[in-house]
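#help-structures

NK: newbie question. if I give both the sequence and a SMILES, will the prediction place the ligand too? trying with flavin-adenine dinucleotide
OV: yes, paste both and it writes out the complex. here, I ran yours:
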Amino acid sequence: MKRGHRRIETQLAVIGTGIAGFAASIFALKRGLDVAQFGHSGAMAYTTGYLDLLGVHGQRIRQDPWAALDELRRDEPQHPMSKLSNPTIRTAFDGFTDALCDMGIGYTKAGEQNLSGLLPNGVAKPTLSVPKTMLPGIAAREAGARTLVLDFDGLQGFSAKAFEVNFAERWPALKSARLTFPDMENRQVFPEVLARSLENRATQEALAGLIRPLLNGAEYVGVPAILGMHAPDEIRARMEHAIGATLFEIPTIPPAVPGIRLRECFERAFPDMGVKLEPQLKVSNVEFGRSGATLFLHGPMEDLEIEASAVLLATGRFLSGGLKSDQHRLSEPLLDLPILQPDGRQEWFRHEYLDPRGHPINRLGIEVDSAFRPVMPDGDPVNERLFAAGAILAHQDWVRQRSGAGLAIATAYAATEAAAAMLA
Amino acid sequence: MPARTYEADVLIIGGGATGSGVMRDLALRGITCLLIDRKDLNAGASGGNHGLLHSGGRYATADAETAAECRREGDILKWLAPECIDDCGGLFVAVEGDDEEFAGAFPEHCRVAGIPCEPLTAAEAREREPDLPEAIMAAYAVPDATIDPFRIVLENVGHAQRLNDSAYLPHTEIEEFEISDGEIRKAVCRDRRSGERVEIRARQFVNASGAWAEKVARLAGCRDVSLLYSKGTLLISNTRVTNGVVNRLRLPDDGDILVPGGTVSLLGTSSVTVEDPDGIAPTIPEVDRILAEGAAMLPVLNETRFVRAFSGVRPLLKAAGSETDGRKANRGFALFDHEDQGLVNFATVAGGKFTTFRLMAEKMGDLIARRLGSAEPCRTAREPLPSGEALRWTEPGAAARDWFRRADPADMILCECEMVARSAVDTIIADAPGAEDHMSLKAIALRSRIGKGACQGAFCSMRVTSYLYDRGVYDSPDGLRLMRDFVKERYKGVRPVLWGAQMPQAELAEILHCGLAGMDLATDADGGDAK
Ligand SMILES: Cc1cc2nc3c(=O)[nH]c(=O)nc-3n(C[C@H](O)[C@H](O)[C@H](O)COP(=O)(O)OP(=O)(O)OC[C@H]3O[C@@H](n4cnc5c(N)ncnc54)[C@H](O)[C@@H]3O)c2cc1C
Ligand SMILES: Cc1cc2nc3c(=O)[nH]c(=O)nc-3n(C[C@H](O)[C@H](O)[C@H](O)COP(=O)(O)OP(=O)(O)OC[C@H]3O[C@@H](n4cnc5c(N)ncnc54)[C@H](O)[C@@H]3O)c2cc1C
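OV: that's the protein plus ligand as structure tokens.
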């Protein structure tokens, strides 16, 4: 069979299907731009579902992310988020969570304070917005409410017992129990499989029926994040009703349902919204011409050529393939963008894994100007039509700073605004 | 706090190849031993070596006596402990630029030491090891083999425990000896986890503490043990690179030997004299040098993915010229009866090789048995080493084979890289040496392949920890602290080989350990150490 060949024209080509890429497409659409987005499964299927903005600054957990951002601008002027004002970041964040709610995945609106998101081991993390299915757990912990946490036979890396034991001192009314998931006896079970089977009403009822007799006065019931893939809020409401207690989800180790949910929700909604989305294709080459760029993609059946007036690079870091390294140097494989870096790998990682200062390598990446255009070492933009956003940017350490989604959303917003201004 | 007390015929200090060998040797003579280690089994050189069961070829040129000793001992172990050994054979290969004279004299040196040595053409050598380069000057086949150092030490201890009341105590560090009238009355130790004082009375005291033997001898006032500490670093690849052992045929230098170990390979090793056997870790320049040297012999190593590096300290006996170059030191061993130091119930065995541990244990066993008035002869040169159910999880690939054979869908895989199932962890918790004590993630990892695969503990640390909570082995935030200690320790070996394909792994590991487990922000109250 002859290989197909397809040409697409678009104003903005977004490379990357992580949070930064999806956020960029959302913002570009709002600006009325014609958007095409490309990527392949990356880090997003791994996220907890929490949207962090800035949970740690100065090696301390921060309750108020907005005040912490003010300090960040002072202490780390090169940080990508330091280029943006709090109102801009808030606009971006709200724009993203509103879009998620519109697409059917309920998220809480960013407040003034961080929330204490629960984690699988019975620890908590500072985050700004959480899936609505996870909010009651945070409230239950704060109130020390009578709560039952459940896990399932054959589900790895999630121990309700560990959750109970590690929270015990400050949350004595927390109890744990183990269930066999309906029709999943004697085997290893994966969160994704459980979530898909809970799309089925009969399974919801069967599970609720197993939970009810265990309640023993509990007001809240926590389960690993498995409450369906497409309409978790509805499933949660229905099961709550059947159980007679407030139900909440707790993130699991990856691959985790909340990230897959986001991905599937974008993939479902975007085509109707007008984004030309190719969620399983890598861009293999980009060539810049005078009036735009040509992107080359090679699908299993056809070759794609995209003519774009502007390009937004949101390809993430090593895990997603946005950065690479050999024994001595880091590189950006798609465009070979310059990376300011020390000589040799001696200084990439600190000697202590958990050094509170974080590893220098995590702050290496793509340098951008105030319009989020990658720059040459002399500070000039690599190309007027090229923008970058998300984890690939230099001078941030989103893992340690607890700012993954916030960084991706805020910089995607700023980069899209700059691209729109250039295209206008 | 009152001290815990123990009594045994013999206290053995040091849970490496030598100490565990002495334990089994004495138990076979009906003598009851208590083995202690300040950390855990194989915490020293026995857990930080190449795993090469030397044919003797490596020493044939410089030290015929050690070479012959290796050959004899290698044959005995292949015969009596086949479960722990992969008799894969080995090659000595000289490549372009290597010393022709040295290479040419090799067969004669082997003959003198009694080591079978078969000359091969370049084509024959490449047939055995297709990754060898075209430009081979000389190649010889020798009966090198590999030994699983974890398995054999666990088996030694396991067998001794089954033979009589011999027992093993981890995390017990000797701090002081109480001596009167030319005899040690008791050993005063510290439980390194609880801080408890532990007192051990015995009739005989054996110092088998490897690179620490000089320090331990000094605790008993003996000044006759004098060691040189030679640090060696090794790189572990993600897959097995060669079929058998490949040695560079030249004077020993960095990056000379590639040794398979089940499904992985180990490349090494450097030799750097250090002041202190404690606190060593592999460095980036060492790793780069070993790799560059190794790639001259096997260019494929430039494309090989390495998952970890580690270092060990060779306990070498001081000899002329050895102060500056550890490779010149004597690879033989010595037995110190310390009688000229005024003690009649203390002895030290030091130096040697992993390959010769049995012989070292035999000599020590003979001395101790004689002192205790036992006429029982050594039996370790004749008695096969039985293998214990709980002890077969250390070999790369073994857990996977077992899991596929049993095909039990309910037996969950906790470590996906190395296919370690719950059932394996269950047997370790139930029966492996040290199980009487508290089993932690680290202790289980030592007795299996957990944390040793490509992900280097990113996922399995969390899965196993969850499982240990489920089983009630952990019942407090301590379990989180132990997980944290484990990944911090693992990282030391991971850091020097972080590039290429390991970078995404490292990134994911940090996201999980910090983002999902909050290890970077943990305080004492929630399972970390306070800042
Ligand atoms: C385990 C885990 C847990 C997390 N938990 C949280 C959390 O609790 N809270 C939080 O706020 N954030 C969390 N995050 C972070 C978050 O999901 C994002 O990783 C982060 O925000 C960075 O987003 P990004 O879009 O810049 O990059 P990524 O998410 O890394 O996305 C990059 C994308 O680019 C694509 N790509 C790369 N090269 C090409 C190419 N040549 N052509 C086409 N596409 C390409 C990749 O396939 C991928 O889709 C977590 C991440 C992980 C991995
Ligand atoms: C890099 C390297 C590669 C090597 N490769 C090979 C090889 O391929 N083949 C080979 O045959 N040999 C090899 N060797 C040599 C071999 O590993 C050692 O000779 C052998 O393991 C020594 O065993 P041991 O039991 O005497 O000492 P160790 O294994 O060091 O045991 C000593 C134990 O004593 C304990 N201890 C120390 N102080 C105290 C105390 N105060 N109280 C209680 N316990 C204490 C330690 O924790 C340690 O576990 C290699 C060595 C190195 C370093």
